[in-house]
Each structure stands twice: as C-alpha cells, then as structure tokens.
Amino acid sequence: MGSMTHACRALVGVGAALLCAGVLAAPADTTVEPCSARALNLEQPAYMIVDAVVRGDRLLLPDYTRGLREVDLLTGKDLRPRSILPLGTQRGEVKGPQHLGCGAGRCVVFGDRYFWVFFDRSWKFLHEYPGFTSTASGQPLVFDDRIVVYGVARAEASGTTAYLYVQYDDGGVFPLQEFPMNMPIPEIVKHIQFKGIITGGLTALPDGGWIFLDPRSYSVYVFDRHDRLRKAWNGANPRFRVPNWKAAPEVHDDSGRETYARWQLSQPLVKRPVVVGDDLLAVVIGLPDGPLRQRHELDLYRLSGEPVAIGVPITGVDAGRLVASDADAERLMLVGQETWEPSARTIVWNVDVPSVEQP
C-alpha cells in the first residue's frame, strides 16, 4: 500500500470551501481523485449534537431543548420557528428528543419520554411503545417491520445486556451482540458511556443489509437483509488505539461532563460509517489535537474490508463533538460543534468523497 497523503486546506465559515488534492493513501493499483467539502455555520446552535438526518437541502436535527428542527443547508437558517413534532409527555408527543432514525417511509424518535415514537414521512403520528427496557446510544436504522438499535437492552428484555439488537414493532427485542456475562457492572457502564452518540454506529446498505461499526475496536460487521452476520473485519488506520479504559472517569451527573469529555476526546473516536458508493464505505476517525478538540481523517474501504484510502487528513474539520449524519445520495455529511460544551457553535461539513477508479 502506498503512503502518499496530502492534507486539506480550509477556510471555515458560512459557505467556506475545504479542498484536498493529490494522491491519497491507497493501494498501488488504485487511483483516487481529489476531494472537496464545504462548511456551513448554523444560525442557531444546537444544544448538543447527537443524531442528524440529511435529505436534499434539509437537515433534520433533534435538539434536546427545541424539539425536532428543520434547517436549510443553503443558508443555515431554521425553516420553521418551532419543532416539527409536538412537544410534551402525551401519546404521540416527544420530550427532549435525542435520537432520530428514518427509513422505509417512516421515522422514529427517542428521547426523555423513554418511548419509541414513530411518524410517517409527513410527520403524522403512527404508533409508539415504551423504551424503559431498551434505549439508544446511537442513530437507529429503520426498516418497514423493525428497527436495528445500537444502545442497551436490559436483561429483563432480552436475557442479556445487549448493545446491538433488533427491535420489532411490538417492542420485542432480539439481541445480536452483548456484553460478556462475567463483565463487572462498573466496566459495562464505562463501555456504555463510551459507545454511541459521537462514536461508532449503524448504516444501511442498498441491498437491504446493514453495517455496524464498534468504536471500541474499530471492528466492522456486515449483516444481510435478514439480520444475519455475513462478514467481519477491522479498520486499518494505524493511528487507531483501543480506549484507555483504566483512565476512564466515572460520570454520575452533569458535573462530571467536562472531565469525561477531556478523557474521551483524548481517545481516537471512530464515527458512524457511511456508504458512499455501491462498494465503498467511508469512515471518519477523530484524533486528539490538543485539550478537548480533535482533528479528523478519512478512511475508505470496499465492503469486503479491503482498504482503498487510509488516513486522509481533513484539515479544518476540528471539533469538540462530531457525528456523521444519515444522508441521502451517497453523501458524507458531518455535523459538529466547535467545543464539547452545550450550545457551542454548530457546523455542517459537506465532504465530497474522492471517486475511486481502477486502472
């Protein structure tokens, strides 16, 4: 594998351009075109970035204090003065929305009501069921008869402490991966706190299958449309390191948020994978870059696990929080905040993934 990499240049601000050029780290028989991206500041910062869905020029953003926002990606302004969804604690309402997943003509929202609340594509309420025994850590995948969740399903729901599971429309849970039965509770808590929100996650495949990326090990699991594991492989970025679990602080309330952020941002953070072609998977990895901030690199793989481009620097995409959104049209859209603090400046980066051609 070749080792030539070229950093990116950036002018960060509304409408700013991020440009990359040259030969990316790639196998010798692969040609990778230059890449570019744009950065857009949101007029109204989010309280705390958790999930994001992009459809066309619209960003759907669950905002803990303001409900579900719809943002114009041409201007950075909210398209509506209020939440798309009704806020409250009654049936069909949402409170403190955090997680949003869309697919198969419907969306699901999970928040402080601890209910999985489903809506159609026009935001008409469909149904809901309680989530007291299953919660989300990252963005759920939505299919026509079930959702796939990266989170926690408690033992009373599944017989295990699952962190990856299928949840059917009646609320039934089928675990796919779980913590070892002999893992001490304090260690499980550390892993739960690290997994999800700004690390790892799920992405759907064009054939109905899906992928799970475990950020603790940079392990990639490829499932078919029947939720059967078909292959597994590990990421190849040499700067990835397993988290330093011994140094992980305990967090019992909001007073420990900065201490935890300082530790977490000192670890390599692998983001939610994104399918950017028929046989091309993009993974963004955050790397420590001073106190409470990270710089980011791009890794590209075939679905088989074959590396295409590894460790491509994306200079200018620096953030205290960053997620890879669920975006249409095979786009790589990153949504982040300048610092770890709530309500920090919120930025959307539209990254043009370089096309890959075989000679």
Polypeptide structure, described:
The chain is mainly β and 359 residues long. It has helices spanning 155-158, 185-194, 257-264; strands at residues 9-10, 16-20, 31-32, 35-41, 53-55, 58-63, 67-72, 99-103, 106-110, 115-120, 125-130, 134-136, 141-142, 146-153, 162-168, 173-178, 201-204, 210-214, 219-223, 229-234, 269-270, 274-277, 280-288, 294-301, 307-313, 321-324, 326-327, 332-337, 346-352, 356-357. The strands form 7 sheets. It has a 6-stranded antiparallel beta sheet with strand order 1-2-4-29-28-26, with no helix packed on it. Strands 12, 13, 14, 15 and 16 form a 5-stranded antiparallel beta sheet that branches. Strands 21, 22, 23, 24 and 25 form a 5-stranded antiparallel beta sheet that branches. The longest helix has 10 residues, at 185-194. The radius of gyration is 19 Å and the shape is globular. The protein starts with 8 loop residues before the first strand and ends with a strand.
